[in-house]
Amino acid sequence: MIRIFALLVMALSISVHAEISVIVNPGNANAVSTDDLNRLFLGRTSSFADGSKATPLNLAEGQASRDEFDSKVLSRSSAQLKAYWSKLVFTGKGTPPKELADDAAVKAAVAADTTAIGYISSGSVDGSVKVVATF
Question: How far apart are CA 97 and CA 42, in angstroms?
Answer without folding.
Answer: 8
